[in-house]
Design goal:
α1 crosses α8 and α3 runs parallel beside α5. The strands form three sheets. A seven-stranded mixed β-sheet has the order 10-11-9-12-15-14-13. By secondary structure, the protein is an alpha/beta fold. The protein is built from eight helices and 15 strands. β14 and β15 form a beta hairpin.
Length: 345
Amino acid sequence: MDPQFLLPERPLTVAILGSSGAVGKELLALLEERSFPIDKLTLLASHRSAGEIQNFCGTELKVEETTQESFKNVDLILASAGSSISRKWKDAILSSGALMIDNSSAFRMENDVPLIVPEVNPDDLSKHKGLIANPNCTTILLALVLAPLTRRIPIKRIVVSTYQSASGAGAMAMEELKKLSQEVLDGLTPKSKVLPYSLAYNLFLHNSPLQSNNYCEEEMKMVNETRKILGDPSLSLTATCVRVPVFRAHSEAVNIEFTQPFPIKEAYEILESAPGVEILEDFENNRFPMPLDVTGRDPISVGRIRQDISNPNALELWLCGDQIRKGAALNAVQIAELLLPKNHE
């Protein structure tokens, strides 16, 4: 990769924008866990979280309120504070000369902003102009499975249903699920304040805004982002997204129709060697991936790969992945790692 697209060749000055949220805290943990080359780390958030103390490599860091001055002399901004905040600070970040890796949906579909899953389309990083988008969590998990399979036989159509945990709505939604679940057990009527409906012993169709085609925003993110990541704007994909009473990690039921029959044995061989993917299944005991299997872990787990009995060209499978980790924070850190000069020697 051309050096102009890489991060500086030295320990970096890094800032996490949105450091007090669930993904922000996971970013902090991953930077330490993966020994990312940092000289100075700044934690940024709104005035409400300013002053909070977080730990990094044995040192206590105080969260600072984000201002125009926050981005000066910073090499890398890992942004995970939501679309409106990313839009608000984008110009200040880019004018400071920092590289911005953004976890929100604000810029994902802009033509000059690469949308990256490192295991799938790393070459697209060479198109960045200081801003790189991290895909939606469900899209990342799906792309890890689709990409290696479609390299073998082209995909004709995908039908996916997602089962999305409270973590997808942030730390407050996770806390609310815990609180309201106890209220149900205590015989009370749960009243949700974070989500539109209670998730306690309940589920509901994803609460993102409905679009004119009667698909919700979350579903259309999966459609449009998957097309962009796989480089196939005409890819046929339909999605139904559901919120479920799980604290952390998303699941997906995926039906993939190919242009010709796909031998199951080959599908296993491909996915077993695919980066970021593991096979987890025990047909004898009817045991397949569950959210608890992937919580706090990097790989996504795939299982129950089978022939679609209604279509000889289609396979069905089930997957689970940690939304906060690979579905958000880990993917962002992996993008940054791809831009380290040492990885291009």
